[in-house]
Write a structure and sequence with these properties.
This protein is an all-alpha fold.
C-alpha cells in the first residue's frame, strides 16, 4: 500500500495536530505544577527593592520583558514541536511508501 501526501497536505496535518495536542498539553500535571514560572514573585521582590521613584518604570519594563519572554517561548516551543512531529510523520509516511514533494 502506498500512501502519499503533498507538502501542503503535510503542513495542514501538522497544524491540525498542534491544535489537537494543544488542548491536552495545556492541562497542568502534578509535575508541571512543581515547576511554575514565578515571574510575579520575582517582579514584586525586585520592584520593592528599588527606590519608590523608579518602581513604575521598572514595573513597565518588566511587563514588556515578560511579554517578550512569553512570545519567545511560544515561538520556539511551536517551532521545535512542529519539527519533531514533522520528523516522526515523515518516518511514518516513508514507511508507508513515501511522500509527493
Amino acid at each position: 500500500m502506498e500512501f502519499k501526501l503533498s507538502k501542503n497536505e503535510m503542513n495542514d496535518l501538522l497544524k491540525e495536530w498542534i491544535v489537537f495536542r494543544d488542548e491536552e498539553l495545556s492541562r497542568l500535571t502534578s509535575e508541571d505544577k512543581r515547576h511554575p514560572l514565578k515571574f510575579n514573585e520575582f517582579e514584586e521582590r525586585l520592584v520593592r527593592s528599588l527606590p519608590y521613584k523608579n518602581r513604575k518604570l521598572a514595573k513597565n519594563e518588566l511587563e514588556k520583558m515578560y511579554e517578550h519572554f512569553l512570545d519567545f517561548s511560544s515561538y520556539y516551543n511551536e517551532k521545535y514541536y512542529r519539527a519533531g512531529f514533522g520528523d516522526c510523520l515523515n518516518l511514518v509516511i516513508m514507511t508507508l511508501g513515501g511522500c509527493n514533494k
